[in-house]
TrEMBL record:
It comes from Acanthosepion pharaonis (Pharaoh cuttlefish). Belongs to the dymeclin family. One of its GO terms (biological process) is Golgi organization. Pfam families: Dymeclin. Keywords: Lipoprotein, Myristate. One of its GO terms (cellular component) is Golgi apparatus. It comes from the Eukaryota. This is Dymeclin. The keyword Lipoprotein applies.
Amino acid sequence: MGAASSSFSELPTNDYLKKLAGTEPLSSIDPFWNQLLSFSFLSPISSADARLLEESTSSICKNLALNNCRTGNFGALVRNFLVRATELKASTQCDDNIFTWQTYNALFIIRSLCKYFVENLSEELILQQFDATNEPEGETEGSGSLTEELMNSLAELLVDVPVVSFTYALHLEALNTLLVLLSIQMYQPQAASNFFHYRCIMQGKCSIHACLLMKALLRNYINQEKCPAELFKASNNSSGMLYNITSSVASGIWNVVTLGMGGGAKKKEEECFNEALLSNQSILFILVLANHCTGERSLNNPYRQALYSFTNSQDESSNSNPTQAIATFKLDFSKLYDTLCITLKDDQTTLLLYLLLHRNAYMKAFILSRTNIDSLVMPILQILYHAQDRNSHHIYMALIILLILSEDDLFNKAIHDIVIKTVAWFKERTINEITLGGLLILVVIRTIQYNMTRMRDKYLHTNCLAALANMSSHFNNLHPYVAQRIVSLFAQLCKKHTRLIEQIRVAAIDGPQETLQENGIKALESDIDQDYVQDLAVLEEVIRMVLEIINSCLCSNILHNPNLVYSLLYQKELFTMFRTHPTFQDIIQNIDTVLSYFSSRLELNGQNLSPSEVLTTIKEGAVQFRKDRLKKFPELRFKYVEEESPEEFFIPYIWSLVFHSSHMYFNPARIMLFSLAVS
């Protein structure tokens, strides 16, 4: 870190940067640009180093912002980049590494300056920085908005320039620059359509590339390309791709191409480059593109449309007779599915899967047809199992994915046919030979119990129980431990119900009294009593759903669930307290009927039966049990429906992911879109 810090400290006194930010106007074709862009700049890929860089260059950025309206130097830099970017496709084909490196340098400086503008200026003033020019009128006439020209050029770069070892950093910087320009949303929270940058990308020249850009971004994600090995070799290694460049320049080039990692600590270097950075930035940009400008009729979002309608390049049936007259593209669903399965750990990948499942009917059908669906479900269950290490939004998205999957009957059947031999991450007890469906039930019940003790969120309860309810009629050959946990959940809810009833009874006897709350505000205990009543209503809804889930399983598949019957019999006294309760009476009747039938069968076989004998008796009795003795209830069917204004949830969430996961530094003191109280 010391080497990086000392390099950063030299930047404010760099003569070339001082000239760029100074009072002397520079033409876009001035020889100065070749000199500036041949200099070595450290481009950090960690937010900590990015912060050091910004602090080191803040005076340069401030001076340029003050002087640029007269000099137009920022616009000259952008135009210089645009010329280089236009020529770049040809240069990559002939392996012109130096030209690519200089183009990258130009874009890195542009991004750094844009970052300062976005965090410190209004959009109107940002546009003035772009539009300020000292060029002769003829040279800039007809070029349109320079902001739009830059954004369009970056989109074309991502689409047209192949990702190879010496263009990897350039692609990364193109994504970073676009994210920075659109990050204005973090600092000025209002409808995205109000911002020129968003209107530009949604309906300007950029929108022409919507399908190809979305395809390129998804391909970046699928390929999971790590930073090429050459990018973090020591700068004095002459065997790298730039070996033919003179040694006096080589060390500077290596510092640029290595994104500032050449002088960093080896451990940190390896950590950063083991990550597929281009894939990560591509997902973040997909999420930003697809979730803004979604509610305005006057502003179409072509990227969202492209993401929700692309089809499988390997499916011949989707290649003919299109039924939709919309722009789309084709992608290999198998490769996308495999990549989702192996990378489903972080928020952004989970959110991408959610969007594909919820909105792209082709991808949803493909996922649900997989015979190795366990490859997708297991990572989701791990996310839920480690809920204490996740943020609430991530837990919600994982649960919603399960809920969407549970809407499909074939999925609900298939998960009970897939046997998981061992589950190393499940620590409560050693489980061998459990079905995927059984493990799913265990993890969801555990999530409910975690929520009861920690989060106490009704919305989370609802999603958990809705998923279990959808699956309940397909519960099959439940593992003994799974059956125990279902009944244990009911027992835990019963205890909570008893405590709440007692608290309400005591409060009613004592009468209303004034009490001092933790925040120092005095309140009548009658207000607190009302909270008890509301808690009781929510709890009784949850208990009702658990009973309905048990009842659904018994009515649909009692023959293949002897372990559930065994567990119910073992704790049958739990159901006694609700026999006369108006909320549960009807559903308890069915469970009582089952318990009475099997209890009588056990009594006929004697008093001292072993567990195996009890189970045998249950299996024999289940064959003769008549289902018409049970009252019929409507089939449990829950369907996920997105909120009316989903952008209110997704936009702050997505930008918080950019803040935490993009390896860029955003000044938390200036962010207004979301709270950073808990980072």
